[in-house]
């Protein structure tokens, strides 16, 4: 049986993916393919490279991400991600899809052509940067004659490339639950809620096609920029994956 693991985007909320993967691994479940968008692509790439979920968590806790961002004065975005490439090269020096321990598919959006693009071969880091390039905040990433931004614009749960690879069983880790209990008391929270609702609307049908959906409601309490709460978010994903022991246990024996 071929197992596909799909990881959604969602900023800091995507740290739940690391907890989910840790719980799956502890139960003997190792995906044959990983597909991800934005934060899901980043988590997927680091795990596919060979880092354990706990090691990735420590990287997140120790890294000052602000020093890798710089203002954009001419490009269409507030910040440039150029220096982020240096960080990724430190973490994944080979910069190659082919050298990953687990096959990975990264989703990004060609903003000029209005189409989703999947990357699974050749250079790894530029597509990874593009997949998490939030429009308006970061200047688009130019790669292979395309102007690329966050994959979540068109596909925040990229199950299609896993189905194309004939995955028999799909596990989805989604960090954007349908949660309406968070106070809407600022412009930022209104914008964030609007974006999440739009993403959720496009994701619902894909979630229904997955065999297991891990979608902890409590992660909805966190902002997409809450990296400082990484440990808490990690544990939410870990506990969520452990709540389905019967399904996951039967899967690990197949």
From TrEMBL:
<dbReference type="GO" id="GO:0016787">
    <property type="term" value="F:hydrolase activity"/>
</dbReference>
<feature type="short sequence motif" description="GXGXXG">
    <location>
        <begin position="9"/>
        <end position="14"/>
    </location>
</feature>
<feature type="domain" description="PNPLA">
    <location>
        <begin position="5"/>
        <end position="163"/>
    </location>
</feature>
<dbReference type="InterPro" id="IPR050301">
    <property type="entry name" value="NTE"/>
</dbReference>
<keyword id="KW-0378">Hydrolase</keyword>
<protein>
    <submittedName>
        <fullName>NTE family protein</fullName>
    </submittedName>
</protein>
<dbReference type="InterPro" id="IPR002641">
    <property type="entry name" value="PNPLA_dom"/>
</dbReference>
<dbReference type="GO" id="GO:0016042">
    <property type="term" value="P:lipid catabolic process"/>
</dbReference>
<feature type="active site" description="Proton acceptor">
    <location>
        <position position="150"/>
    </location>
</feature>
<feature type="short sequence motif" description="GXSXG">
    <location>
        <begin position="36"/>
        <end position="40"/>
    </location>
</feature>
<dbReference type="InterPro" id="IPR016035">
    <property type="entry name" value="Acyl_Trfase/lysoPLipase"/>
</dbReference>
<keyword id="KW-0442">Lipid degradation</keyword>
<feature type="short sequence motif" description="DGA/G">
    <location>
        <begin position="150"/>
        <end position="152"/>
    </location>
</feature>
<dbReference type="Pfam" id="PF01734">
    <property type="entry name" value="Patatin"/>
</dbReference>
<feature type="active site" description="Nucleophile">
    <location>
        <position position="38"/>
    </location>
</feature>
<keyword id="KW-0443">Lipid metabolism</keyword>
């Amino acid at each position: 049986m071929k197992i596909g693991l799909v990881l959604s985007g969602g900023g800091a909320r995507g740290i739940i993916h690391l907890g989910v993967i840790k719980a799956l691994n502890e139960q003997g479940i190792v995906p044959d393919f990983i597909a991800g968008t934005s934060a899901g692509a980043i988590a997927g790439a680091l795990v596919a490279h060979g880092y354990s979920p706990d090691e990735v968590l420590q990287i997140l806790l120790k890294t000052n991400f602000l020093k890798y961002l710089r203002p954009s004065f001419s490009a269409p975005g507030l910040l440039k991600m150029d220096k982020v490439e240096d960080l990724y090269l430190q973490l994944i020096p080979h910069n190659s899809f082919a050298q990953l321990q687990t096959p990975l598919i990264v989703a990004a959006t060609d903003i000029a052509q209005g189409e989703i693009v999947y990357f699974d071969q050749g250079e790894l880091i530029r597509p990874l940067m593009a997949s998490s390039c939030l429009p308006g905040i970061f200047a688009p990433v130019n790669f292979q004659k395309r102007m690329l931004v966050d994959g979540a614009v068109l596909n925040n749960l990229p199950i299609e490339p896993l189905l194309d690879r004939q995955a028999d069983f799909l596990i989805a880790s989604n960090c954007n639950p349908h949660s309406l209990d968070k106070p809407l008391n600022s412009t930022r929270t209104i914008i964030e809620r609007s974006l999440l609702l739009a993403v959720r609307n496009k994701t619902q049908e894909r979630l229904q096609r997955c065999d297991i959906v891990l979608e902890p409601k409590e992660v909805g309490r966190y902002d997409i920029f809450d990296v400082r709460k990484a440990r808490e978010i990690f544990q939410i994903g870990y506990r969520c994956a452990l709540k389905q022991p019967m399904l996951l246990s039967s899967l690990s024996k197949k």
